Amino acid sequence: MSRTLSPVTTPNGTATQDRSAAQIAQAGIAGALIGAAGGAALGATFGGTGTAIGGIAGAVVIGGGEAVTDARRQPGAPKPLAQRIASGAALAAAAGWFVGLLAPNAALAVVGVLFGALYGAIGFRNTKVALGALTGLVVGVALTAAWPDADAAWVAAITLVVYRIVSAFVYRGREQVTIVGEHVPVADMEFVVPFATHSRYVGVDYLKEYADLTGAAFVRQPADVGIVADFDQLTGPHFDAAAAHPLIREFYEHTSRFHLSITPEWRVWMKPAYLVYRSLIARPLGQANAPFDVEEVQRGVVSWIDVIDLDHSGEIDFRAWVRAYQETMEPLYVGVYTVLRSDGVGYVSVGFPLPDGNFTATLLPHANRGDGLLLKSISDLPYPGHYLSAVEGTDLTTLRLASFNEEIDVYVAGGKLKTDHRFYLGGVRFLTLHYTIERTDGTPA
């Protein structure tokens, strides 16, 4: 499906409604629970009475602050930094209390370094990790000298407060997550592909289940279909579709003619975190389950395209490219592909359904390697990027994730069609999926 945007549309959605009383109350209750946990953790240093007083004070201060700032907040705008820091400090204190139970004799400086590095890692920048660790070290050493009886809860909370204040100054204007729209009509956020699932599992049959719910016409693996209808729709100031290698055009317009072989290349430091994510999130979710090693993909990976026609017009409205392990049909990816155009520029936009939400990658085509194609999520233009959305009926609340970026490098080498799909966190590449693409009939690609 090709979509056309108005040139004046930008990924800064305009909110259509203020916060309701129920939403404000929910924010206050959540804040009270966080504040009670954090306050009790900090008060525990002073015994049972301190725990009770700290819990009550934390619930009142953090809960009240969350409710007031939520009521005053303009839709689409973040809460004041001070409130975000206070709530974060309460969470940090609770986490520090738990660490203190596990390691009661740990040096305060060590606790500070560990928590500081963790806070920095959330920002997906090596410099933030270093800044966080340094902050934690200073806080830990200072508390050891000034208050030897302080415990891990205080170290964790104070480290977070100092780190957030310093990083807000050092990295001002370079936020990693921004709100681009809150309760915005789907029609006003066309750089997001708003497909979600209302179950807890996405799976390879997602588009069929969506068609069953909406009454759309569904076709499984239609013959000779591609992830885009017309490759020329990708033409823009950075890319001339007519100059691309014919194999690249054929692959995009007739993807079902091809078979993909995958070789994953993970950075060693990312593997442990990915295994945790995969076990706890990707596999139970049936989505975004990238292969871990060559042995996995050697057991066989299959891919196909499902399509739906929303209004029974006889034309394809959306195409889902499904990739799964051949033996088990366990999904790797289920992505809904669209092409959108704005002001003479074509984009590839891929939506990955999530429970009551969606993750969308919107990529800008570039010419590369002479007759190749490079899709990038970083650009001076407004649309490219990665968006995490809550799908609320016909509205979206959408965050833009600046730390996560990707490049899809499609090229022909030695007469063979290849793709290097590179993923980055904070500008550091952590995964490359190397694809070798061959025609299913055995003819050279």
Secondary-structure blueprint:
Layout: E1 2-5, H1 21-43, H2 48-72, H3 81-102, H4 108-122, H5 126-146, H6 152-170, E2 177-185, H7 206-214, E3 217-220, H8 246-253, E4 258-266, H9 271-285, H10 294-298, E5 301-309, E6 318-325, E7 331-342, E8 345-354, E9 357-368, E10 372-376, E11 385-392, E12 395-401, E13 404-413, E14 416-425, E15 428-439
Parallel strand pairs: 1-7
Antiparallel strand pairs: 2-12, 3-5, 4-15, 5-6, 6-7, 7-8, 8-9, 9-10, 9-11, 10-13, 11-12, 13-14, 14-15
Tally of structural domains? 2
Helix content: 25-40%
Distance between the termini: 26 Å
The poorly predicted ranges are 4-17
- Report the sheet with the most strands, covering strand number, pairing sense and barrel closure: 15 strands, mixed
| Helix/sheet category | alpha+beta
Provide mean pLDDT, rounded. 90
Strand content: 25-35%
Shape: elongated
Order of SSEs: EHHHHHHEHEHEHHEEEEEEEEEEE
Number of helices: 10
- Total strands: 15
The radius of gyration computed from the alpha-carbon positions, rounded to a whole number of angstroms, is 25 Å
Could you describe the 3D structure shown?
By secondary structure, the chain is α+β, with helices and mostly antiparallel strands. The protein folds into two domains: 21-174, no CATH class; 179-439, no CATH class. Helices cover 36% and strands 29% of the residues. The protein is built from ten helices and 15 strands. It has helices spanning 21-43, 48-72, 81-102, 108-122, 126-146, 152-170, 206-214, 246-253, 271-285, 294-298, and strands at residues 2-5, 177-185, 217-220, 258-266, 301-309, 318-325, 331-342, 345-354, 357-368, 372-376, 385-392, 395-401, 404-413, 416-425, 428-439. The protein has a 15-stranded mixed beta sheet that branches. Strand 9 (357-368) and strand 10 form a beta hairpin. Helix 3 packs antiparallel against helix 6 (152-170), helix 4 crosses helix 6 and helix 5 (126-146) crosses helix 6 (152-170). The model is unreliable at 4-17 (pLDDT under 50).
